[in-house]
Specification:
Blueprint lengths: L11 E4 L6 H6 L2 E8 L2 E2 L4 E6 L4 E6 L5 E4 L7 E6 L2 E6 L12 H4 L1 E7 H33 L16 H24 L22 H8 L3 H6 L3 H11 L3 H12 L8 H16 L3 H7 L17 H7 L4 H11 L5 H17 L5
Antiparallel strand pairs: 1-2, 2-3, 2-6, 4-5, 4-7, 7-8, 8-9
Length: 356
């Protein structure tokens, strides 16, 4: 019988004539026997028998004799036997399944074998190589964009000549640390006491040129917003370029809402610029979106129940947070908190009729 596996392999596989009882033959007349070491069958070992294309034919456990039952698939000659620790690629021509099962051992040929560890390591190396190639493409595209500085958000300022994921991470962490420090300090000083809430119109937080573009964008379907294109998007960008703080907030939402791996280096840098501008203007919506992760809120007198960051953002003009925090407060047993909730909801709806 030709050797199918290297002697150095911990699992030795051999093809044997069927001596199985009737129940085993009902599954298949053919089987392979797995050994932990020569002469010692590997029992109760999970295995799969599949075509090389990935179509699983049998899934089970080896029996007390170490047998893994196998069967043919019409039109297939290449198969894979896989256990928790090993994988064997085998060529089994159709003629091997025609006669007695004992003939299988003369026909089957081992094409390749590998441990699961080796397979996973190879996959990890391939993924790393692919990732590095993708990052190189991003870096080259960014260099071209930086020299031109003609993207739709070029009004945010010049781009550095080079940019990387590491640069993005360091710049972002530095900014988040500053924001977190401010929020912590302000909350300790009572900055999240919603009973002190005073409604302010959007214009009191900053300039609102071409506000109709923001209203149109807010009324746009969510799926259309994710696509980031078309007349509504172009108008929003134009309003943001004029300094409209609500438009710039929406731009930040649109960009930062995507997975960082999907962002180009150019988009990463523009996100940081938008964040820095929003923080400089103390726009509350930025703080809730970061979701820095403070624990249960104390609304100024030991009253818990809401997240401090969301309450903090609501107190600083985040109308979405005013609506969500206010809605929950409306049912609070404390009359002062319930009244604050009513004020927040009314204020949010007046500024953002689209909120619901």
């Amino acid at each position: 019988m030709p050797a199918l596996f290297s002697k150095s392999t911990l699992l030795t596989l051999s093809l044997l004539s069927p001596l199985a009882h009737a129940a085993e033959q009902a599954q298949s007349a053919f089987y392979l026997t797995l050994y932990s070491v020569p002469g010692v069958p590997r029992t109760d070992d999970p295995y799969t028998w599949s075509t090389a294309g990935g179509r699983q034919l049998i899934k089970g456990l080896t029996n007390e004799e170490g047998r893994a039952f196998v069967k043919p698939a019409e039109g297939e000659e290449n198969y894979v036997l896989e256990t928790v620790s090993m994988r064997w690629n085998m060529a089994v021509p159709a003629k091997c399944w025609q006669g007695e099962p004992a003939a299988l051992q003369k026909c089957a040929q081992l094409m390749q074998s590998a441990s699961r560890y080796d397979i996973e390591q190879d996959a990890a190396k391939l993924l790393l190589k692919k990732t590095q190639a993708q990052l190189q493409v991003k870096a080259e595209a960014y260099a071209v964009a930086a020299r031109a500085n003609q993207d739709e958000l070029a009004w945010l300022g010049r781009l550095p000549a080079a940019w990387s994921m590491d640069d993005y991470g360091m710049r972002l962490l530095g900014l988040v640390d500053r924001i977190q420090g401010q929020i912590s300090k302000d909350i300790k000083a009572g900055g999240a006491d919603v009973r002190q809430f005073v409604c302010r119109a959007p214009a009191s937080y900053g300039s609102l040129p071409q506000q109709a573009a923001v209203d149109a964008w807010s009324a746009t379907a969510r799926q259309s917003q994710l696509e980031r294109g078309g007349p509504a998007w172009d108008a929003l960008v134009a309003a943001a370029a004029k300094g409209n703080w609500m438009a710039r907030t929406e731009l930040y939402y649109a960009l930062a809402g995507r997975n960082v791996s999907e962002l180009s280096y150019l988009e990463q840098y523009r996100i940081v610029q938008l964040m820095e501008w929003l923080h400089k203007q103390q726009i509350g919506a930025l703080y809730s979106l970061l979701n820095i992760g403070y624990a249960a809120v104390d609304y100024g007198a030991g009253k818990g129940g809401q997240d401090q960051v969301y309450a903090y953002a609501a107190m600083r003009g985040s109308y979405a947070d005013q609506y969500s925090v206010g809605t929950r407060l409306q049912t609070d047993a404390d009359p002062a908190l319930a009244q604050a909730g009513d004020k927040m909801v009314a204020c949010a709806k007046a500024a953002r009729p689209d909120l619901r």
